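Internal ticket - ligand job 307, iron/sulfur cluster:
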Amino acid sequence: MRVFSFLGKGTNKLMLYTPYRTFLSKTFPAFRKVRKLSLNGGMTCPNLDGVKGTGGCSYCNNKSFSPVWDKASVSVADQISEFIPLIHKKYPGAGILAYFQPYTNTYAPVERLKEIYEPAFASSEIAGVAIGTRPDCLADDVMELLAEENRRKPVILEIGLQTANDETLKLIGRGHTLAEFKDAVNRAHLAGLLVTTHVILGLPGETAEDFAKTAHIVREMGLSAVKIHPLHIVRGTRLADSFAKKEFELLSFDAYCEAVALFIRIVGMDTAIERFSGESQNNMLIAPEWSGNRNQIGARVEALLGG
Ligand code: SF4
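stdout (structure tokens):
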């Protein structure tokens, strides 16, 4: 297994992985710092509205992972006007990356998508646009629209994968396959878009072999960045019921950090690591209680990587 490292620019610190800020500064060289601005485009998800399924992914409760989950009835233009001054106040001079976050943000007819995205592409205060979606909601006409918008400002397509194991994808009710993910990523790259993904380490029944397989896919697909999360059990989900019945166990803090270190060693330096922990919002978290301890997770992972 390759171990990747290099000296951080202007420091003697050994870089053990490529941080997301490095990817952002390459993508937006005019800014020293770039902050994400979460936006709600008012869309739902085919895995919730009955087109693919009604129960959603077994771990999903958008209230737990998006600060704007309840802004569906507020126009995108109004969200931008409300939140941009807050970012400027907290991070003066930062570039702003609009982030269509909750649910599936390519799930509408292409003409409607154009209207939803327009305030972000038209705003002189927004440097780029990130769009979170599923692999099965990226038809060719959507890809063409995104390629067109990408000529106005950079588009970062965040395509959720979670795991490269098709059996697990079925078990958690994702409603798509690894092959669909690969096809979507290939077409997005052909359209000239930057592509990132989200993965979960510790899904029911998965082992280090599955984490390694997912990491190899991330690497082989040439993704720009990956968000790594531990499995969160949040209120109001099927997984919460299953967890209460003790049908599976969560990774311990140590086992999760080892899984992240293994994942990063395989992914290497070409894919930036956007995060390797995550907080749940709105008091929705049931377990694991350590998942919000970013600093502790970061320190342990770096120690395991040899930092
Ligand atoms: S694809 Fe996303 S929004 Fe849809 S059910 Fe799954 S996690 Fe929830």
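Auto-summary: The radius of gyration is 19 Å. Residues 45, 47-48, 56-57, 60, 62, 103-104, 134 surround iron/sulfur cluster (CB under 6 Å).
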